[in-house]
Every structure is written in structure tokens, then in C-alpha cells.
Task: inverse folding
């Protein structure tokens, strides 16, 4: 096998492993649909898989369960920022400012994204 084939095989096996982990978590969520810990694990796997739809879906579930958690909203915005979706990140943080009382974490994350947007 050449280097490209090896890299492709490693990526395939990693994705396969992530899909198995995700399946296990989804089965556990059937039994405990309001488990914050399982949803956090699910969003971490979604990040590794670069699955923005799954990230959005899972963070929306987390926000539904903990609507006052600014930490969750900042993490959600950070996920958008990490894939280069600055508009999506700003949208999440603007929603956070509407729902939560402004705090330093939200304002700092929003400021960082606004600075990146100007570059």
C-alpha cells in the first residue's frame, strides 16, 4: 500500500469506529433520552465526524434540556466557529444574549468572532 492508500484506510477505520460509538450512544439515549452526558458524548463524536447537521441537532437537544445554560450555547457557537461558520456562531451567540443574561463567556466569544469576521 502506498501512503495515500494507508491514510485513506486509517480515515475509513476511524470513521467506522466513530459510527459504532455513535450507534451505541443512540441506543443508550433510547433508554435515557434526557441524559446530558450522553448528548455531550454524541456531540463530541459529531465534531470528530465533521457532521454539522448532527452537531446542530444535538446542541438543540441540549439547549432544550438546559435553556439557561450559557456554557452550552458558547460551546455550540464554538463548534460552528471551528468549521469556519462564523455567521452560524454569531447567530447562536446572539440567541444566547436574547435568552440568557449577558455574561463574560458569551460576550468574549462574540467579540472574538466579530474580530475574526473583520479580518
Result:
Amino acid at each position: 500500500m502506498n501512503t495515500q492508500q494507508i491514510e485513506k484506510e486509517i480515515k475509513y477505520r476511524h470513521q467506522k469506529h466513530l459510527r459504532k460509538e455513535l450507534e451505541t450512544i443512540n441506543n443508550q439515549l433510547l433508554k435515557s433520552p434526557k441524559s446530558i452526558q450522553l448528548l455531550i458524548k454524541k456531540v463530541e463524536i459529531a465534531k470528530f465526524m465533521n457532521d454539522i447537521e448532527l452537531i446542530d441537532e444535538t446542541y438543540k437537544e441540549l439547549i432544550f434540556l438546559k435553556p439557561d445554560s450559557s456554557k452550552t450555547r458558547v460551546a455550540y457557537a464554538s463548534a460552528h466557529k471551528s468549521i469556519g461558520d462564523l455567521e452560524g456562531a454569531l447567530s447562536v451567540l446572539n440567541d444566547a444574549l436574547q435568552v440568557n443574561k449577558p455574561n463574560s463567556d458569551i460576550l468574549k466569544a462574540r467579540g472574538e468572532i466579530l474580530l475574526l469576521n473583520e479580518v
